[in-house]
Amino acid sequence: MILQRAFYERDVITVSKDLLGKLLVNESLEGKTSGKIVEIEAYCGPEDRAAHSFGGRRTARNEVMFGPKGHAYVYFIYGMYYCFNVTAGNVAGKPEAALIRALESLEGKDIMSNRRGATHEKAVTLTNGPGKLCMAMGISKVQNCADLIMPPFYIMDAPTVLPENIVETERIGIDYAREWRNKPWRFYIKGNASISAK
DNA sequence: TGCACGATTCTCT
DNA sequence: GAGAATCGTGCAA
Question: Nearest nt to A65, CA vs C1'?
C-alpha cells in the first residue's frame, strides 16, 4: 500500500526514521524501478543553517517545501547531479524535508545500470549516494513537486525498521553549516551494504 | 548583469 | 586524498 498524506504530516525527524526500509518506486516509460530506502537525512526548516529554507528563505527553487507534505523536492547540484527530498513536517507551511541519500536497488536493476552507464554494473554502487540514486531511478527536475502518494512516482509502505537497527549520526557535505553540521540528523540502517558512507 | 559556490561523484595519483 | 567536471541559483551591485 502507498504511504498516505498523514504519514508525512508528522515531525520531520520521525518521518525520516520511519522512511527507512520503505520502498521508493518510479514507473517510468522505460520500465519500473524500485529500491528500499536505507539512508536519509532530516533538514529542519528555518532554524537549520544547513537547510535551503534557512531563515525562512523562500525562492522559486524551494517553493515546494512550503506546500503540502509528501511531495518531491528535487534540486540540481554541482552542475551535474540531482538530489531527491520528501517534504514533511508537523507544521503546515513550515519548509522542512528529508533527503534520501541511499537506496538498496530491488526492481529494474538493468534499467538502473543503463541509466548509470556501463562502468557501473555492480548493484550496490548503483544507488549508494544521493546523486547516484536519482540517476538510477530516473529522477530529475521533471519529478520536482510530484505528489508521492500516487503513481507513477510514490513510496510504498514496508515494515518499520526497529530503533536498535537505526544508526544516528551527523549529516554529510554541509561543513558550511557551522554548529548545525554536527546535529545527529542522518539515519541509516545498521549493517546495510548500500549506505553512502560509514 | 555578474559571479561565487554547492545537501556530489568520478578519476587519477 | 586531491582535483576536476559543470551550471542553476541566490545575492550583491
Answer: B7
CB of A119 lies under 7 Å from some atom of strand C: no
Helix axes A130-137, A109-116, angle to 10 degrees: 110
Q: Is the CB of A49 under 7 A from strand C?
A: no
Q: Assess if residue A26 is contained within a domain.
A: yes
CA atom of A132 to C1′ atom of B3, Å: 29
Q: Are strands A97-105 and A31-43 parallel, antiparallel or unpaired?
A: antiparallel
A78 CA to C3 C1' in angstroms comes to 14
Nucleic strand B within 7 A of Cβ A115: no
Between CA A20 and CA A21, with CA A65 as vertex, the angle to 5 degrees is 5
| Contact (Cβ atoms closer than 8 angstroms) between residue A39 and residue A186 | yes
| Interatomic distance A125 CA / C2 C1' (Å) | 22
DSSP single-letter state for residue A145 = T
Number of domains forming the structure of chain A? 1
Is A195 among the domain residues?
no
Query: pLDDT digits over A84-108, tens only?
Result: 999 999 999 999 999 999 999 999 9
pLDDT tens-digit profile of A148-197? Answer: 999 999 999 999 999 999 999 999 999 999 999 999 999 999 999 999 97
Inside any domain, residue A43: yes
Which residue, counting CA atoms, is nearest to the C1' of nucleotide B5? Answer: A78
